[in-house]
């Protein structure tokens, strides 16, 4: 199989050449006459006894180029798997064998939030084997700081090792597991935020009050506290019976404003 790109003024094509002679069977007819979701537009022809299949990839980026420098995250894998399942279901509706999908990073293209796949009519490799290869690619390109992405890649890779696995069922189980895991994390987070310890958060060491020299000096000198003390003594001894007398006695002895 030989692969090359051809660029024109307003169009980019991917050409795949196969050594066998070209035969235009019902597969090419179905692909040309129907707009199948998530599949690249395809044309086929014979050149010098060989087969050439051409795909329009204008304005798209291959998975290989997209993740050459940046890591793959959980949402990238979910979008890919969802688009793949959509393509497989559509192919079966048109009586086309999903084994014809080329699940290699070089032959899957991204555009407008959708992954597009090359369908090669002469393709013979089982889809399950091809999907296992792409899960290994995911594991190599993972963002290892994203826990959810690691869990998803692990589940996909583990499932692809089984015989006759159901990808749709695997994704349903993964979503159910994720919902439970997130609910558990939310519960733990709420428990942490509402936790009140039995022991006090802090203690206060009471200090013994020590009388300052200034207060003692004021008392000895008969300072501004003296009129209040004298008035109170008179009330206790019964010399005054009304509070207005107390007010008159202390009048003019208000505490001075601090400087």
Automatic annotation (TrEMBL):
State the name under which the record lists this protein. Answer: DUF6382 domain-containing protein
The record's annotation in Pfam families points to:
DUF6382
- Please state every residue range assigned to the domain named DUF6382: 5-165
- Per its UniProt entry, which superkingdom is the organism in? Bacteria
- InterPro entries per the UniProt record, alphabetical: DUF6382 (IPR045962)
